[in-house]
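batch_manifest entry 22 of 60
target: NCS1 family nucleobase:cation symporter-1
source organism: Williamsia limnetica
requested by: lab member K.T.
priority: normal
notes from requester: please return tokens only, no post-processing; we will run our own comparison against the previous entry in this batch. if the run fails, retry once and flag.
--- input ---
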Amino acid sequence: MTEVKTSGSDPEVPTSHNNGAGESVIKLSYDQRLTNEDLAPLKNQSWTWYNIFAFWMSDVHSVGGYVFAGSLFALGIAAWQVLVALVVGIVIVNVLCNLVAKPSQQAGVPYPVTTRVAFGVRGANIPAIIRGLIAVAWYGIQTYLASVAFGLLALKFWPSLEKYSESGDMAFLGLSPLGWAGFMLMWVLQAVVFWNGMETIRKFIDFCGPAVYVVMVILAGYLIWKAGWDNVSFDLSVGPSKTGWASITALISAIALVVSYFSGPMLNFGDFSRYAKTYGDVKKGNFWGLPVNFLFFSILVVCTVSAGATVIGKDGEGNIITDPVHIVDKIDNTTAAVLGVLTFAIATIGINIVANFVSPAFDFSNVAPTKITWRTGGMIAAVGSILITPWNLYNNPDAIHYTLDTLGAVIGPLFGILIADYYLIKKQKIIVDDLFTMDETSTYYFRGGVNPVAVAATIVGALIPIGVVIWGTAYQASFTWFIGAAIGFVMYMVGMRMLPKELIYGTRTATAEV
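--- output ---
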């Protein structure tokens, strides 16, 4: 049975109503080194199932999501096998998101605070920094991908800008002047939405999720009408289709890819589930936002891409164009092209904010609560996304493979540890007050504020998948999340059950149990 405990009757002092992450409640006993108005438990949890549903719509609708969904239908397996992979993969994601959502919804705190239960009040900075760095990398890449849309749009109306779009003598750090203009415009638009706080973000995704769908359906309908239904195929692969054991392994890989694709937002989903009124709202929103939404989106994508191949043709190398920005850019109808380009730019703003802006905002704030607010943490991530020059990262296949896959390999053990601790070790009990105290006798202080078992499980659970990324095949690399999650889960369980309490908690073993 779910249970939330408090360890005292200290008076509650509500914070200002103006903090970006929502109004919270801070007790006088809370240690300032662990607390600020953004990390503290929420005073009111008001999100409904629709807000969670809209969150996932925004998370799925993006240029990256479009390309990813299209790539699954180009794996060389039958369409029915792709649909099976989509169903199985997204159902797994749905179940895992329900699991990771519960502790944050229960306590009203974001993901990095929730991890204090397993890692300790100081050790929680380890998963927070790891997740924050991953978000910075993806934030920069998504911003760059969406910024391409603005460049294409500008060239449609002002062809004379062509001389500023090539990466020639005028390029700076590998990006053309027009590219910089588009990137910074996208960067500023996202920062403005974020800076206005979680309530503005909620309203933004509530509107944009359905609005983007309307345009996507119209775009798909237009292309199908122009191409004819007979030219719509659910097989986007080139060459002979895989059969026998090869098709089975491709099917399994597709399932793993679906889970891996959502591994980032899935890990820090607590940053959003904390706002939900009830856990029932979370589960209902997840159901409509994941299995139902993702399947419909994927089918819509393959219809659009397949029909687009007939209407606009293929690229210079004879490949089907899966990037929606380039699809709409090649449409003869200027109005449709402009509407499509703007739509996918807005869609990417949505996913970038919910998946890669809010997360590092909480993560970096958790590192130094007295100095870094939620807004400051988000802006640190935004500035970092420029410094990594994501266009150079994205345009170098080896660099993006080793950078993002290596960072992503660490997500698995973090997830496995959180689930093992909350459901099997702590039995779904959280002492909320102890999340915000440095008292050595408190439950989550462990050994000097750090749980050595969680740290060891993270290191081992990350190194093995990273080894697979570096020395394994591309097929093996698609399972790094599962490998890391399993190792982290098992190591943490064994360590917490088998190791001496003195090693985990120091000399205060009497207060080690929840």
